[in-house]
UniProtKB/TrEMBL annotation:
Keywords: Lyase, Metal-binding, Zinc
Gene3D superfamilies attached to this UniProt entry: Carbonic anhydrase
Annotated Zn(2+) binding sites: 38, 40, 90, 93
The name this protein goes by in its record: Carbonic anhydrase
Organism expressing this protein natively: Imshaugia aleurites
Length: 169
């Protein structure tokens, strides 16, 4: 039997599909840009950042992390024609709340030796300073040989309490 979450997805999708009229959209993003942002449940990228269906790639991960997103960004740019990146982190991010050693000790406690082994040496990439983390990720992307100089990169902070988006760098 489907879980409540699964049942909800089925029910809501049936409603969505019954009114769906966007099947004609092309694969490459119409506005040729990619957004990297956090997986945080309080962020609605389409609404908060003004992204219409078919406009842009939205790459989400813990922290809106540029290194994590690199594989997708290269595919976005080299195979699907995007030429601009918006890197958007946010206030109150979970990545501000722990250090690598904290994450590794939770892993050891909850997942046991095998889990610990599999994740040993993993950098969870938490950050203590939000603005600096945005600046560092923008620097990383601009310095990366995988991201050509022709790609425009900007760094932003989204405030989960006010809904406001601020261009930082
Ligand atoms: Zn976050």
């Amino acid at each position: 039997m489907a879980s409540q979450i699964q049942a909800n997805a089925q029910k809501k999708n049936a409603e969505y599909a019954s009114n769906f009229k966007e099947g004609h959209l092309a694969l490459p993003p119409a506005k040729k840009y990619a957004v990297v942002t956090c997986m945080d449940a309080r962020i609605d990228p389409a609404a908060a950042y003004g992204i219409n269906l078919g406009d842009a790639h939205v790459i989400r991960n813990a922290g809106g992390n540029a290194r994590d997103a690199l594989r997708s960004l290269v595919i976005s740019e080299q195979l699907l024609g995007t030429n601009e990146i918006l890197l958007i982190k946010h206030t109150g991010c979970g990545m501000l709340t722990f250090k690598n050693e904290d994450a590794h000790s939770v892993v050891a406690k909850n997942l046991g030796a095998a889990g610990q082994q599999e994740l040993s040496g993993l950098d969870f990439q938490p950050f203590p300073d939000l603005d600096k983390a945005v600046e560092d990720d923008v620097k990383y992307l601009k310095a990366s040989k995988a991201i050509p100089d022709s790609i425009t990169v900007s760094g932003w902070v989204y405030d989960v309490e006010t809904g406001k988006l601020k261009l930082l760098v």
